[in-house]
Amino acid sequence: MSVQSLPRSSRSTTAAPATTTGGPAPLPPRRRRQGSRIGGIALRTPFWVLSGGLAIVFLYPLIWAGVSSFAPLAGTNQTDGWGIGNYITLANYQAGIWTYIGNSLFVSLLTVVLTLVTSLLGGYAFARFRFPGKNVLFLATLAILMVPYASLLIPLYVLLNMIGLSNSLVGVSLVLTMLQLPFSTFLMRVSFEAVPKELDEAAMVDGCSRFSALWRVLIPAVKPGMITVGLFAFLAAWNDFLAPLILINDSDKMTLPLAISNLRGQVQGVVDYGATEAGVVVLALPCVVLFLVLQRHYVRGFLSGAFKG
Amino acid sequence: MSSNAIKTRTAPVRRRSAQQRAEGWRGWLFAAPTAVIVVVLFVVPLLLVFQMSASDWPLLGGNQGLNVPENFTDAVANRFFWNAVGFTLLYTVITTVILLGLALGLALLVQESTRWKGFLRTAILIPSALGLASASLLFYVLYSPIAGPFAGLMNDLGFTFLGTPEGALWSTVFLIVWRYAGFYMLLMLVGLQAIPDEVYEAARIDGASRWQTFRSVTVPLLKPTIAMTMVLCITGSLLAFEQFYILTKGGPDNSTITVVQLIYSVAFQGPNNLGVAAALSVIVLAALVIINIAQIRVFNDKEPK
């Protein structure tokens, strides 16, 4: 179910030849669908203008960011024309861009691993076992969505201080894992429930333990769900701003979004716009690439995430 | 076949207690990581925020004893409190109205599966892959009167995106619309897809015009989707923080301070008072839980029709 193919409903194939719309010539049936029955050429021109304009509005900022990150913008250190100067400024910024990329990767990958392990085991338990307190635990997990993240940050700050995880990237990962739990546990539970029980029962009859049945038979079956969960955990952690802003003090422990937002300085006027733009590209590029490669999983994730209402 | 089914159904009943207890233990074993994270990082902080809201709790120094109801009265008495509440509500109304209308329009526009519309859908969706902080930083440079692409034009017209309270609000709204339109469009598309073809055919046979079909078929049948999208949009907007923290820092003239920004600044930027910040958090929490419940009620009332 990629973005391209998503809205192709059965409607498209059942569209009957229209008799009321007065197009100059009968159009191929694919175009005569419900929704926007664009009839004549006169109606088409505004459509092209409108949709072309929309494409420009949505793509322009991204393209401009990419181009201007190589440009000698006003307010930048770059004086020698077009080139990688903005990236060099960024690389030399404070602890250095590689430290921040490393911190961000550490937080993101740890969050992905923690989220996958918890939701895989949890989803399996919720889908396959009956145990006392199961529904309470599941509802408590979903309740994370009902409670605004921002109102937990103050107590989380104090709590992580108490247990010695303040100013630590592991602490940030734990908080982000908690935030991913409702979505990931829900999605993994649904994924497991979609697999027939007979499959793992057969494996256990053949001598597998519960755990090896999960490992050998079920994990391959729920892989698409795991990819979606992993993708969303990665993006959430890579992009998160609020948790590191509140939990991290040391400048060499900052994650990438935090470091780049600090490039703007505290005093007005001292902003390195070029380096900021280069930073935006470094931040956005992995997201855009992952989006384009994993569109199918992305859409699925959005749809599962939408249940949070 | 049938005897087999009876066997498997009766077997567990006989050995119920022993087998179920073992099953329960194993279930808990698998659910343990989830339980630990939920309890330690969600339930405990949730209880802690209530305790903190009732305690004198400076940023450095920890719990200094009971302080009710002063934390709450101090929170409400903060000179930015009512401004922040008002601004957050205004911002929420504006973004919700624009985003819902635009998302529905875009969904109708790109509903069919032609190659160009597929491209357009992808183009509209790509910004949702960016983090809110990255998108805000990108627009911070884009809106800059020094380095942005509109810098020359802005200087000629004597205009800045972020320099006036109105400009700052609408510039931020534009950023959010750019970032979230695709996400809400996707939800609307799924809702549109769930409407059965037969209804449209019946409307066509009855001779309904396109506008009539939209008004009396599409919109009513899309109501659950619209309601759900609205819940998401309102909840998200009420918690706005990053976009204003990065784009405007609450300015100009403290005109764009949101409620979450107020929590942050009370805790870490100014008074450094975690007790008052916790009281503000409790107020936000209560407001959002009430709003969520109210919205779900409205949503469910419309369901049976």
Going by CATH, the architecture of the domain at 98-302 in chain A would be Orthogonal Bundle
Shape of chain B: globular
Write down the CATH topology of the domain at 98-302 in chain A: MetI-like fold
Find the CATH superfamily of the domain at 98-302 in chain A.
Answer: MetI-like
- Spell the H/E element sequence of chain B: HHHHHHHHHHHHH
Distance between the termini of chain B: 42 Å
Counting DSSP H or I runs of 4 or more residues, the number of helices of chain A is: 14
- Percent strand of chain A equals under 5%
Structure classification of chain B:
mainly alpha
Average pLDDT taken over every residue of chain A: 82
Helix share, percent of chain B: over 70%
Largest beta-sheet details of chain B = none
Major interchain interface with per-chain residue totals: A-B, 111 and 111 residues
* CATH architectural arrangement of the domain at 81-256 in chain B: Orthogonal Bundle
Mean pLDDT of chain B: 86
How much helix is in the residues of chain A? 55-70%
What is the CA-atom radius of gyration of chain A, in angstroms? 25 Å
β-sheet strand percentage of chain B = under 5%
Q: Sheet bearing the most strands of chain A, described?
A: none
Quantity of strands of chain A, as a count: 0
CATH superfamily grouping of the domain at 81-256 in chain B: MetI-like
